[in-house]
Task: structure prediction
Amino acid sequence: MIEDNQILKIIERKNHLFQEDIDDNEIFLRNEISSSKFLVIGAAGSIGKSVIKEIFSRNPQSIHLVDINENNLVELVRDLRSNFNSIDSDLKTFCLDCGSYIFEQFFKNQHRYDYILNLSAMKHVRSERDPYTLMRMIETNVLNTNKTLALSKEINPKKYFCVSTDKASNPVSLMGASKRIMEMFLMKESESLNISTSRFANVAFSDGSLLYGFIQRLNNFQPISAPKDIQRYFVTPKESGQLCLMSCLLGENKNIFFPNKSDEVKLINFKKITENFLNLKGFESFECESEDEARRKIKELNSLNKWPCYFFESDTSGEKEYEEFFMEEEKIDFKKFKDIGVIFSSLTYSSDKLNTFLKDLQKIKLKGNWNKLEISNLFKEVIKDLNHIETGKNLDQKM
Result:
């Protein structure tokens, strides 16, 4: 477990983001949450857990949690019960796939929700490595979002919030492209439903992330491997929850929130992150020439308080050298909040193209045998400037 203050040292930041903005709006947040009913989809993921703790700390009237991962959902409840002295809210959990018929029936039989937060996502670029996982990613990020949007319109909540990613800005990966298309559908449906979203950086030490993997490598007495030429923005888990909460409750229709504090949120490469992490754990990184050398040296170096690391030039599909929060054509307000930028989305979309995308996707799905190129070409029909980088290599081929 890495504490928030330790994370700041690893990502080379001095201060936490968003707290001033939270403090400035605390009275509204507390009053609104305590009188509102929430549905959180994808509740047991890293971002979901962080958002829920922010909501719970302000005593919501009702909160229903939905996730497909049974074990993580159970652990989430244990965590909440252990963290909060008393829980007066109507707290219920449901282990459901939000794309299923069962979820549909669950939704239709519940009482009205004031706020619906969709945090369900497939977030890894490695998910586009084969056409089957890629198809599931499209179902999760696009089709399931559309389904929850349609269901939400039937009850007309105060807000439908859906989390996006900085990878949706000028995407080069199909994962980022799926989120960009998702944003287009959000903007389309915002004509009849109040919607906001957020794009933010990598959540440091979130489940499945490379930084989370560093902890596992130390626990399992294994070498560390990371790209040395890739730079990313990072936020802490708590900050990810705060940004989502602010966008959901304070964002206006079509707003996209993102971290905005140039003197704090800086791009940092994974090699530096690795070195900082190991220093915090009492080790010095030892750079190896190959994966094999790193595996061989683990026992030899450990006694010297050194840890073998293999740093490589990135050559896998969909990797972008650096990320960005917004696109040139988007209109942005940098003054409304202290640490948050707000995009008044001017993201263009064509209803005809989005409808054609869904029809063509369905045709491909019915074939039952897909290839990555035809799916990639389908994306390019919607995102003309998609500059997908296909190298034929993926991160599962790395240590």
User: Anything to note?
Assistant: The mean pLDDT is 90. The radius of gyration is 21 Å. The chain is about 45% helix and 15% strand.
